[in-house]
Amino acid sequence: MIAETDLNVLLQRRSEEDPAGVTYAYLDRFSGGDAPHERTLTNEELFRRARALAARIQGTAQRGDRILILNQPGIDYIVGVYASMLAGMVAVPAYPPEKTRLNRSQERIRAIAEDAQPSCVLVDPETLATTGETLWGGQSGVEWIVTSTVDTDLADSWVPPGTMPDDLAVLQYTSGSTGRPKGVMLSHRNLLRNLRAGRDVYGIEGRMNGVFWIPPYHDMGLIGGILMALLCGGRTRLFTPLAFLRDPLRWVRAMSHYGAYVSAAPDFAYEMCARAAMSAPEEVAGLDLSNWRVAISGAEPVRADTLDRFARAFASAGFRRDAFYPSFGLAENTLVVTANPGGSSVVSLDAAELEKNRAVDAITGGKVRTVVGCGASADPEQRVEIVDPETRERCPDGVVGEIWVSGGSAAQGYWNRGDDSEATFRATMAVTGEGPYLRTGDFGFVRTGELFVTGRLKDLIILRGRNHYPHDLEMTAEKAYPSSGRSGRCVAFSVDEGGEEQLVLAVEAAPRMSDGERHETAATIRERIGEHHEVAVHEIVFVPRGGIRRTSSGKLQRSAVRAAYLAGEYTRETRSRRPYSAPRNVEEQAVADSWGRVLGVEKVGIHDRFFELGGDSLRAVRVLAELRDSCGYELTLSDVAHMHTVEECAELIRSRAAKRDADEEIQVDLG
Question: Which residues constitute the domain of residue 146?
Answer without folding.
Answer: 7-246
